[in-house]
Each structure stands twice: as C-alpha cells, then as structure tokens.
Amino acid sequence: MSSNKNTPSLRARLAERRAKPGDGRPLPPFRWWQTLGRSLFLLDLATVDGATTTFAVDVRQLGDRDDGEVRARLYRDGRQMAVSRLPARFAVPGGHIEVAARASGLRRCHFVPDAGEERQLTPHPRSAEGLRARLHHRHPVLSTVIGVIATLVVLVGVCITVPQIIETISQVPAIADSIGTFTSPIHLPPVLNVIVTIAVVIASTERALRLRSSWLDELAN
C-alpha cells in the first residue's frame, strides 16, 4: 500500500501540538531598525466564500525579551492567531504553514497545502529576506553569483573546521586510548581562523536570507 505524501510525520504532528492560541493583539508594524533581527513572511489564501485572507508569520531572530526563546507568531488579517516555539506548524485553510530555523536564521517558512506543491511565503519587502529577494528579482545573475560564492565559502569552512574538531575530540584520553588520535592536515594561524569564521558567518547569513541554510552551515560555524 502506498503512503500519502501529505500525511504529516511524527515530527510535524509534535510541532503542530506546540502551537498555542494567540491573544488577538495586532501585528506590529515593521520598523527599519528591525531589518536584521526580525523575519516577517506573508501569505494570501482564498477562503471557502471566495474572499482572501492574509496570514503573516512573525519571527524575532534574537528571541523574546522575557525568556530569549525564539517563537513564531501567526497573524490572520493583522490579528495574532497562534504562537509556537520553533519548529512550528500552524493549521490554516487548505493546509499548514511550517516554520523552522537554524542558528544562522530561518531555513523554512512554507505553506504546505493538503493537495499540491508546497511554496515559500513572501517575505516582507523591508525585511532582510525581502531585500535579498528584491536583489534576486532585479539582478538575477548577480544574485546567483552571490549565492554560489556563499555556498563555496560554507563548504570551505566545513573542510577547514571539521578536521580540527575531529583532532580535538580524538585527543580526549578515552578516545585516544581506544582508537588513537587524529592529526588535522589543516592548521591555520589564529588570525586566519578568525577571518574564515567571519566569512562563514556572513555566507551562512546570506544563505539563510534565501532560506537555503542546512546542516553544512551548522558544521562550518
């Protein structure tokens, strides 16, 4: 018997259970100083009566003021409908909105319909994700080049960082006694390590603005 590809996984069901009802407060306006610390994505959905409902997903990347927890807040026509820790999964007409993040930023903010292909929500034009999307729309070749360079920088960061991590772990006495030690073929001066780290952070942030971050970004950082 074939499985239904739209049947939610256990992880998705657990994410959906984390969602709590919102308090109905209005969606705060997007301010220019929030560009690097706030992600805001929008989605227009048709209702059964033919009207259009606008959903918004608001994520403060630095976490909430009271406890530092990063949460996603779902708004419907400007009113808070639900709140959830990440990863989040919100039920909306015709499907779900899924939100997930890594240390470098959001990696997912998609509408997953009950039938059909999923699609990414539209970033607010004044958000960092929105500005990056505008660059891609206006200068697609430049955007592609920047994206390729960012990916290459992350890959180089992984090649430099992982061997050094393995060397450090292998020097733990219990591991060294059982399997021996590993010597990394790459040893950079401290200044170069700092430069590589900064470059990888910038590259990972660029990838996150396109919701392209992956486990590679976590390894490189």
Textual characterization of the structure:
This protein is an alpha+beta fold. It folds into two domains: 114 residues, no CATH class; 82 residues, no CATH class. Helices cover 38% and strands 27% of the residues. It contains six helices and ten strands, in the order αββββββββββααααα. The protein has a six-stranded antiparallel β-sheet. Helix 2 crosses helix 3 and helix 3 packs across helix 5. The longest helix is centred in the last third of the chain and has 31 residues. The radius of gyration is 21 Å and the shape is globular.
Unreliable stretches: none
Strand order of the largest sheet: 1-5-4-3-2-10
String of helices and strands: HEEEEEEEEEEHHHHH
Radius of gyration: 21 Å
Number of domains: 2
The total beta strand count reads 10
Our count of helices gives: 6
Q: Quote the average pLDDT.
A: 87
Quaternary organization: single chain
Helix amount: 25-40%
Structural class: alpha+beta
Biggest beta sheet summary: 6 strands, antiparallel
Shape: globular
Beta-strand proportion = 25-35%
N-to-C terminal Cα separation, in Å? Answer: 43 Å
